[in-house]
Design goal:
Distance between the termini of chain A: 20 Å
Largest interface: A-B, 48 and 50 residues
Distance between the termini of chain B: 13 Å
Low-confidence stretches of chain A: none
Structural class of chain B: mainly alpha
Low-confidence stretches of chain B: none
Strand content of chain B: under 5%
Largest sheet of chain A: 2 strands, antiparallel
Mean pLDDT of chain A: 81
Number of strands of chain B: 4
Order of helices and strands of chain B: HHHHHHEEEHHHHEHHHH
Oligomer: heterodimer
Number of helices of chain A: 13
Number of helices of chain B: 14
Structural class of chain A: mainly alpha
Mean pLDDT of chain B: 88
């Protein structure tokens, strides 16, 4: 047991030192450090929300859903454009309805014909779905940058101004996003633990065949789980769209959900959240504090290490603990 | 009636081991090669060379390389465009820094450098597989992209980060027209395709396939997974690195940072999925499909007289692309190569199917 946890402990210790070092060197002005930390946590919430949809689908159907990013973009586009005509709450409901419809269509046209194929074929199929959704969303809803107004003021609020000089600036919509994420996770937890459908979903996640043999309809479960992932995509899309505007890059940035699920474990919902926060904080810290050091040391043409930091972190993590922080242990020795 | 092996007996080991045991196949391939080498350079237009034939040949080579890894050894990679980038930048720096270096030598050296980098990023495959490996190779993609965009030495301190290559000279033969480039590419691709065909039916290819089909069983019968997986990564990256150098030098001529991005990686993956995993022929079909499809989709609305904005056309193309991929996976998960094989099978019995 000890051997299993040692490398993880070392990795976490290294990360913790990496986190603490910038604070130690700029101890005079902790305000900036905390702002970077909060910015990282915010980005982490966004990654977590995307990763959450990912984990849900992987748990229930074993499909590595590459299209989750495209689903977030599609949901955000739908909500943003519909909200131009009707009140926001109605737009959100319509957005959810669209995502449920999408789940039904995907199950019918993609998953059902491909049942029993290998994982890589299903992965490719979701890649196809993601291309389709990217094109479809922008054909139907347009490809400009749209905004989602949550009705909160954009002006940052200063807190802790009297504790140290400069205080900390935070945005109201960031706080709202964090609250929404917490509520969503709580709702999902209740859904999975307390409802009959949730139990069925957990049964399917545990063992497909056993679940089917006691009369759980797999096809319907897939529709439900893709719908839930669609709802998560709506929430993620709104939070993201409110912060950065609804545009094509959402679909690309959502690739970062992959290292998040590696870090957290493919089958763990808390893992998706914590993994997202670690990745978010890690890459912001790396960009702000490690980036300039690297640029000076190697004479680089600019920073931008947040483009790869998450992936390399996931790669290192894979080497010491392939199942992720909270994933089920895969016992499969070759 | 025409295509059947009746009466063709193998009377020696040499015949038994022939690359193409059936006479009709041999005739077909030789005729195809003759057509490609002797007729096409004089008949095709510059447009055809530049937008279809040349990119098709290079992409086919890259797809063969990726197929060796994914189709034959079963190790998935979503980062192979990064190894193309390694090949391209390696060739660029070799040509720049080593005086009087022949491009052919630089090409092989670039392939070897790409192979070394590929092996480095293949090391995680010894511990993880499947989807986990996919993320590990994504790390290669983004890290290598970033390295070439930021480390100034690789681009020879070009302020914009883009590099441009001189006109190539192969033993005094200047590659300055599209037709000449085509002939050069065709020769390179032919050589490496024959090599790949032989590689996959030799002991190393069989070791890869054993690992792909069941790694535990392969290890039990005495195949070392470390050796098999790392050679697959090395050979695959070698091919892809050469394709990258050709893409940079012969097709693009000059390229910007991020020319070898994740989209290219995914396209390579689509090529082998649509063409057929574990099939050299399939790599060619897939490459042709992926190279030609956007052009066809671009032309169709114009010929039908439907005016479309460029943005709309690209969105529609992306939709059709995605739908076609799903469609292909559903009707034929083994790709175009399988359809080709079925066609040949049918042809053997035609026109008397009983």
């Amino acid at each position: 047991m000890k051997q299993r946890y040692l490398p993880v402990a070392i990795l976490i210790a290294v990360l913790a030192v990496g986190l603490a070092l910038p604070l130690a060197t700029n101890a005079s002005a902790p305000g900036f450090y905390i702002e970077v930390l909060l910015g990282g946590l915010m980005a982490g919430v966004l990654y977590s929300l995307v990763a959450l949809g990912f984990v849900l689908i992987f748990k229930a159907s074993g499909v590595f859903n590459f299209a989750q990013g495209a689903m977030v973009l599609f949901a955000a586009l739908s909500v943003a454009r519909i909200a131009e005509q009707v009140p926001l709450w109605a737009a959100v409901l319509l957005g959810i309805a669209i995502m449920v419809l999408l789940a039904v269509v995907v199950e019918r046209l993609v998953l059902r014909p491909l049942v029993n194929q290998e994982g890589v074929v299903l992965l490719m199929a979701t890649l196809g779905v993601s291309y389709f959704l990217d094109g479809f969303g922008q054909t139907v809803w347009g490809s400009d940058i749209y905004s989602i107004e949550l009705g909160l003021s954009k002006a940052p609020v200063m807190i802790l101004g009297d504790l140290f000089k400069g205080g900390i600036l935070i945005n109201k919509d960031d706080v709202a996003a964090a609250v929404v994420a917490v509520l969503l996770v709580a709702a999902l937890a209740v859904f999975f633990q307390k409802t009959a459908t949730g139990r069925a979903l957990r049964a399917v996640a545990d063992d497909h065949q056993a679940a089917q043999s006691i009369g759980i309809p797999l096809n319907r479960i897939w529709v439900i789980v893709w719908s839930v992932a669609g709802v998560v995509a709506v929430v993620a899309g709104m939070v993201w769209g409110a912060k950065l505007g609804v545009q094509f890059s959402i679909s690309q940035v959502a690739l970062k959900a992959l290292p998040v699920v590696i870090l957290g474990g493919f089958t763990s919902i808390p893992g998706a959240i914590i993994g997202g926060l670690i990745i978010g904080v890690g890459e912001k810290m790396a960009e702000v504090f490690l980036g300039p050091v690297l640029v000076r040391a190697f004479d680089l043409a600019g920073g931008g290490i947040e483009n790869w930091f998450a992936y390399v972190l996931a790669l290192l993590f894979l080497l010491v603990r392939p199942e992720g922080l909270f994933g089920e242990r895969i016992i499969d020795r070759v | 009636m025409l295509y059947r092996e009746n009466g063709q007996f193998k009377t020696s080991y040499r015949q038994d081991e022939a690359l193409l045991p059936i006479l009709q196949d041999r005739v077909f391939i030789w005729a195809l090669l003759a057509l490609a080498f002797l007729a096409v350079p004089f008949l095709a237009s510059n447009y055809l060379f530049l937008s279809i034939l040349n990119p098709f040949l290079i992409m086919a080579l890259a797809a063969v390389g990726l197929n060796l890894l994914v189709g034959y050894c079963g190790q998935i990679s979503i980062g192979h465009a990064a190894f193309m980038a390694v090949g391209a930048y390696a060739a660029y720096n070799l040509m720049l820094r080593v005086p009087n270096l022949s491009f052919l030598v630089a090409l092989v050296l670039a392939g070897l450098i790409a192979a070394a980098v590929g092996m480095l990023f293949g090391i995680p495959s010894l511990r993880i597989k499947g989807l986990y490996l996919a993320v590990a190779t994504l790390a290669a993609q983004f890290f290598i992209d970033w390295t070439f965009a930021r480390v100034k030495w690789f681009t020879n301190y070009a302020p914009s980060g883009s590099v441009s290559t001189p006109v190539l000279d192969i033993f005094g033969w200047r590659l300055d027209t599209p037709a000449r480039k085509y002939v050069f590419l065709l020769a390179v691709v032919t050589v490496f395709t024959v090599l790949a065909r032989n590689l996959v039916r030799g002991h190393i290819g069989r070791a890869w396939m054993a690992i792909r089909d069941m790694d535990v069983a392969a290890e039990v019968i005495g195949i070392r997974p470390v050796y098999a997986k790392l050679t697959a990564f090395a050979v695959s990256s070698f091919y892809v690195g050469i394709a990258g150098a050709l893409w940079g030098f012969v097709y693009l001529g000059s390229w910007e940072p991020l020319a070898f991005n994740i989209t290219l990686s995914l396209n390579l993956l689509f090529m082998i999925i649509i063409g057929g995993m574990g099939s050299i022929t399939g790599s060619f079909f897939g490459a042709l499909f992926i190279v030609a499809l956007p052009i066809v989709l671009d032309q169709v609305p114009a010929t039908l007289g439907v005016p479309l904005s460029t943005a709309m056309a690209s969105h529609l193309a992306s939709m059709i692309f995605g739908a076609l991929i799903v469609f292909f996976l559903i009707v034929e998960p083994h790709g175009l190569a399988r359809l080709w094989a079925i066609g040949k099978e049918k042809l053997r019995l035609w026109p008397f199917p009983h």
